[in-house]
């Protein structure tokens, strides 16, 4: 089983990246294949609603980072999405990534349009986490929902949603064994769900 981790942080080695590493370590220790991507290393244009992907079955409007990521998403049995909280939501990098997943939908021509996902049918799984400096879960705003809600109609079962609080300084999460342990367990749970255990 293949798991693809996506860090939506503009910092390549910050708290989000550290937590993603820990989730994927749990995945690997449970026997699944894991790889990670930092969106900070890709240029991803925002979806402009041109609808070309409805005909072309992929985004042909832009030749950018998503062009490289689409095959990896198709191959992966699971996604791990992590983002720091920016103004009660995910980062603009993560939002662009999520919006460009629209290219995996097929639509009918009636109104209102019916739709299906070309990613559905493989019992795909996902884990999401949001990292904030806030002390209260409510102050993470809509970040966890912004990560998890778009995955469901695409064909993913979100098996864990991890809110991570009190993380402001870069790398501070590395000193929090409790949160790192939670992230690791999320990875183990993801691998178990993929294997049907």
Could you tell me the mean pLDDT?
A: 95
* CATH homologous superfamily grouping: Flavodoxin domain
Q: Give me the strand/helix succession.
A: EHEHHEHEEEHHEH
| Helical residue percent band | 25-40%
Strand numbers in spatial order across the main sheet:
2-1-3-6-7
The end-to-end distance, rounded to whole angstroms, is 13 Å
* Oligomerization state: single chain
Extract low-pLDDT stretches.
Answer: none
Biggest beta sheet attributes: 5 strands, parallel
Query: How many discrete domains?
Result: 1
Describe this structure in words.
The chain has 197 residues and is of the alpha/beta class. It contains 7 helices and 7 strands. The strands form 2 sheets. It has a 5-stranded parallel beta sheet with strand order 2-1-3-6-7, sandwiched between helices. The longest helix has 19 residues, at 177-195. The model has no long low-confidence stretch (mean pLDDT 95).
Short description, anyone?
This protein is of the alpha/beta class. 35% of the residues lie in helices and 21% in strands.
Characteristic key phrases:
five-stranded parallel β-sheet; globular; alpha/beta; two-stranded antiparallel sheet
Give a topology summary.
Blueprint: E1 2-7, H1 15-29, E2 33-38, H2 52-56, H3 65-75, E3 78-84, H4 92-99, E4 105-107, E5 115-117, E6 124-131, H5 143-148, H6 151-154, E7 156-164, H7 177-195
């Amino acid at each position: 089983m293949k798991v693809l981790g996506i860090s939506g942080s503009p910092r390549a080695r910050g708290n989000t990246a550290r937590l993603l590493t820990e989730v994927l370590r749990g995945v690997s220790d449970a026997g699944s294949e894991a790889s990670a991507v930092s969106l900070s290393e890709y240029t991803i244009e925002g979806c402009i609603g041109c609808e070309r992907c409805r005909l072309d079955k992929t985004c042909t409007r832009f030749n950018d980072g998503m062009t490289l990521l689409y095959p990896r998403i198709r191959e992966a049995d699971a996604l791990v999405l992590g983002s720091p909280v920016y103004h009660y939501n995910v980062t603009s990098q993560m939002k662009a990534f999520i919006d460009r997943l629209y290219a995996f939908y097929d639509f009918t021509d009636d109104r209102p349009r019916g739709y299906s996902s070309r990613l559905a049918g493989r019992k795909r799984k996902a884990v999401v986490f949001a990292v904030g400096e806030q002390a209260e879960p409510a102050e993470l705003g809509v970040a966890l929902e912004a990560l998890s809600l778009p995955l469901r109609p695409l064909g993913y079962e979100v098996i864990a949603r991890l809110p991570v609080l009190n993380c402001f300084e870069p790398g501070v999460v590395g000193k929090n064994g409790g949160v790192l342990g939670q992230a690791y367990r999320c990875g183990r749970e993801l691998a178990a769900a993929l294997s049907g255990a």
